[in-house]
Design a protein that fits this description.
four-stranded mixed sheet; alpha/beta; nine-stranded mixed sheet
Length: 259
């Protein structure tokens, strides 16, 4: 029996199957378990977020499709959530679904984990892929034993992520661990050479990727991505003036003149 078409539209992604057998997922956004809230006000933070429960519920709608294409532009987010999504996609692949990921912009951190769930990855020459070691925020006081326990947890995350990249690329675990330890950025062609991608879209429209002057943000097309604390954009990327900072500087000068 032919499956009914599905069309799901969220703030950050669109999931649709035109004919009931093939589906396309536009996955632009940051990966979280739940929508983050402002620590001071408790109000939801505005932004583009891919949320675990919503995503998995929607994914179930296309379980009977024979193929899924994911269009990716994500700098990552919660490693746990990315791993769960990766594993659920691999489950679909084992059930016979053909998975393809097209990196329209960037696939960084958790985004690269989801990308590697796909048996075919297509990248633009200007796409950006990034892998790195697990890290997290610390608040409060800790003794040496507690910090060692936390380091053990991070080591476990790293090993799990190495296994994901190892399956996709065929590189050795040691080689991948070294790349993660150095926080490795790859262009589309470099990702292809290292096995993270399977094809390069030579005729694709050039994608403009640049960094802010302080290298704390990326501009991918018309979208600004804030990198996580402690992370910087690679030195090879050209920098552009941040329009928000420039606007603040102009407003500050105007206010100073008025006073």
């Amino acid at each position: 029996m032919k499956e009914k078409p599905v069309e799901i539209k969220k703030a950050v992604y669109t999931l649709a199957s035109v004919d009931g057998s093939s589906a396309e997922l536009t996955m632009y956004g940051d990966i979280y378990e739940k929508r983050p809230v402002d620590w001071w006000t408790g109000e939801p933070i505005e932004g583009e977020f891919i949320l675990l429960d919503e995503f998995l519920e929607d994914l179930d709608e296309i379980r009977r499709c024979t193929s899924l294409t994911i269009r990716m532009n994500s700098y990552g987010g919660d490693a746990n959530v990315a791993s769960v999504i990766h594993n659920r996609l691999r489950e679909l692949a084992r059930d016979g679904m053909a998975l393809t990921c097209i990196v329209d912009g960037v696939a960084m951190s958790g985004g690269s984990l989801i990308m590697c769930a796909c048996d075919r990855v297509e990248v633009n020459p200007s796409s950006l892929i990034m892998i790195h070691n697990a890290w997290g925020f610390l608040w409060g006081g800790y003794n040496a034993a507690e910090l060692r326990d936390l380091a053990t947890q991070f080591d476990a995350y790293d090993k799990a992520q190495v296994a994901i990249y190892e399956r996709k690329t065929g590189l050795s675990a040691d080689a991948i661990a070294g790349m993660m330890a150095e926080t490795t950025y790859m262009t589309g062609r470099e990702a292809l050479d290292k096995g993270f991608a399977d094809a390069i879209l030579e005729d694709a429209e050039p994608l403009q990727i640049a960094a802010s002057a302080d290298r704390r943000s990326l501009y991918v097309g018309q979208r600004k991505l804030h990198l996580a604390p402690g992370m910087e954009a690679p030195a090879a990327l050209q920098t552009v003036e941040d329009p928000e900072i420039r606007r603040e500087q102009i407003l500050a000068k105007l206010n100073k003149r008025r006073t």
